Amino acid sequence: MTEAATRRRTPGAPCWVSLMVHGLATTQEFYGALFGWEFRPGPQQLGPYVRAMLDGKEIAGIGQLPPDRHLPIAWTPYLATDDADVTAESIRSHGGTVGVGPLDAGDAGRMAIGSDPSGAVFGVWQAAAHLGTALAGTHGTPVWNELLTRETSTVGKFYAAVFGYEVEPGASADFDQLTLRLDGRPVASVRGVGQALPRDRGAHWMTYFEVADTDESARLVRELGGQVLRPPHDAATGRTAAVCDPEGAVFTLVTTASG
After folding, report:
1. Domain-located, residue 224
2. Are 116 and 158 in contact (CB under 8 A)?
3. How far is 173 from 146, CA to CA, in rounded Å?
4. What band does 3 get if pLDDT is binned at 50, 70 and 90?
5. Which of 32, 83, 107, 159 has the most CB within a 10 Å radius?
6. Which one-letter DSSP state was computed for residue 167?
7. What are the percentages of helix, strand and coil residues in the chain, rounded to 5?
8. Dist CA 19 CA 59 (whole Å)
9. Last residue of a domain, one of 87, 106, 135
């Protein structure tokens, strides 16, 4: 395992993942059993919020929605910025929207939540005391983020303009796929799935979590009240399974080839 947040992230780099749910206590039970997370209180500006911990290091955030808010339950990646206000304005000027913020999260940093022109939601994080996910390469840590959208061209230009990504087309003309790079290093991917995009979810970001054994973790998801949406199978990145928690938040389990 490696520490993942010993210094401030490069602008545009995925730095945190967060989930807003209705049942905070039951969601903690689910992810605690699945990933071994423990929890401690986090900033309360948007309501009850906890940070998931492994070995005393921050991994992810989970907050509670007000009872009258019926938003899609989804994991949201946060992208690093040196200035959340400037990035929010850039999001708007390039065809996206800003739904929350920018606002201060106590002394932790400054944040905003926006969406790209296809409607996929993501966060923006300007770090202060809280740098983001502090551990990588072990069971229960986020390892990758992929945007699932109808087509990649428009949103690829949006993310390149706002975050300065180098956009690399996929190797095969048969697949509509992009890799987003910073300083030559891959940090996220975009996959155009056309009409296969789920109508009930639309364009969305998918978070991949590293696990020691994809098959065992998928079995545990079912046991804990979640669902397996795509059974474990071998892929280029390792052995993966698409699953969702009891409130419907979709994520991918992956045991990487190197792991």
Report:
1. yes
2. yes
3. 19
4. low
5. 159
6. E
7. 20, 45, 35
8. 12
9. 135
